[in-house]
Amino acid sequence: MGGNRASSRGISRRRFLRRSGAIVGVGLVAGCTGSNPNDGTRTTSEGGTDTPAGPAALGYDLSVTHELTEWDRYDPDWEPPSDSPREEYTAEVLATGLEVPWDLSFAGEDTLFVTERTGRITEFDSGTLRTVAEPSDIIDAAAIEAGSDESRWRLTGGEGGLLGVAAHPSYPDPPVVYVYYTAETSEGKRNRVVAFDASAPAPDETVVPVVDEIPADTYHNGGRIAFGPADYLWITTGDADPGLEHTEQTRDPASLAGKVLRVRPDGSPPPDNPDSTSDADPRVFTYGHRNPQGIDWLPDGTPIITEHGPGAGDELNVLRPGVDYGWPVVRNSGDHERYPETEFQSPVADASSWAPAGGVFYTGESVPSLRNRFVFGGLISQRVTAATITPADGPQPADGHERRHDASWYDADYRAGTSGLLSEELGRVRHVEQGPEGDLYAITSNRDGRANGPFPRDDDDRLVRIRPA
């Protein structure tokens, strides 16, 4: 643990460029060092992995206050921009040679964790990359070589592997990090959310389950995790049903497939989670989702997700507790029922060609033209998209947007305008995140075998910082 990566994993080169103003202060803040705090109590997971008996076994106090008003981005009186994001942007490359990076988590003031779908949780520290943990029961997932011209949609691992990452809200005290990954078990693939002690000498040996038994498949695994405004852990799960062979589970509140979950840091459900049916899983916040891969919040604490559609019909959805979002019955694409003809909750925006991934409602000052917009990555679109979301009873998105989503059947409480940025400059963009100093970062996903045009380049995959041109 903690050394350089083995070249046998196909890594051509890795570097983290420390420039003037580039990720100032990113480094290792361990919080607690020393011996593993586990008390030795062990249980065997479904897949036979020897893991601690639960989050309490880490030996830290994981509790938080869950006060929305204490969130540093809380602003109930926020106002959307009155213009469109027409400014030109540039991407400053900070790190290269990553293997299909999937998520970013800034922890505390000076620590950055990155997941690579091939199986590593990495920490950036002043120009170096350090492997923090590699889950032992994760499925085998692959990346094509940087600069390769091959196109392989069905790479080993499909869309599974190591996905979301989120540091505890009080990191580094406790020094606990959460990850979402696809595991091999005795009953087949399952998605898991686990926590581990990032300060331990062997973090892999401290892994504890937080939410287990999430349905998994080669495709449609969801996978984004994030701590929200009131310090609950939110989890997006896919329908795990790309062939539509188990259509009942997505809209079944008792199943964890095709859901947005909300739990405390120890994995238990909050008492005010919605109680949609008598047999509903108490961790379920919303259901009827296909493959949500991004989540963030408006400044008043309202959650927004990105959701992949079937061959088209990608969506941005504003979430309401306990609501059914209709998949696989309704979608404005294919042979599905259309929203204007149903009672299901409709999206705030949709498109046929985003393939929307992770995003952030940006509140920083470094890119002023994107402030108070939801900025998310696009895979098949190979760009970043900025969405201006406005209350339906207020000023509407400006005419300069690439598209205005103002038809009467959209979400009754909001309107949106969307515009593409950095088209074909980065390739497939997997996630966009805001740093602690208000900078805007993105990671690419060009080594997953699905990139078009000049991608993957020799230095893919990359971590970049987005700036005004």
UniProtKB/TrEMBL annotation:
<feature type="compositionally biased region" description="Polar residues">
    <location>
        <begin position="33"/>
        <end position="48"/>
    </location>
</feature>
<protein>
    <submittedName>
        <fullName>Glucose sorbosone dehydrogenase</fullName>
    </submittedName>
</protein>
<dbReference type="InterPro" id="IPR011041">
    <property type="entry name" value="Quinoprot_gluc/sorb_DH_b-prop"/>
</dbReference>
<feature type="region of interest" description="Disordered">
    <location>
        <begin position="30"/>
        <end position="57"/>
    </location>
</feature>
<feature type="compositionally biased region" description="Basic and acidic residues">
    <location>
        <begin position="456"/>
        <end position="469"/>
    </location>
</feature>
<dbReference type="Pfam" id="PF07995">
    <property type="entry name" value="GSDH"/>
</dbReference>
<dbReference type="InterPro" id="IPR006311">
    <property type="entry name" value="TAT_signal"/>
</dbReference>
<feature type="region of interest" description="Disordered">
    <location>
        <begin position="428"/>
        <end position="469"/>
    </location>
</feature>
<feature type="domain" description="Glucose/Sorbosone dehydrogenase">
    <location>
        <begin position="98"/>
        <end position="450"/>
    </location>
</feature>
<feature type="region of interest" description="Disordered">
    <location>
        <begin position="261"/>
        <end position="285"/>
    </location>
</feature>
<dbReference type="InterPro" id="IPR011042">
    <property type="entry name" value="6-blade_b-propeller_TolB-like"/>
</dbReference>
<dbReference type="InterPro" id="IPR019546">
    <property type="entry name" value="TAT_signal_bac_arc"/>
</dbReference>
<dbReference type="InterPro" id="IPR012938">
    <property type="entry name" value="Glc/Sorbosone_DH"/>
</dbReference>
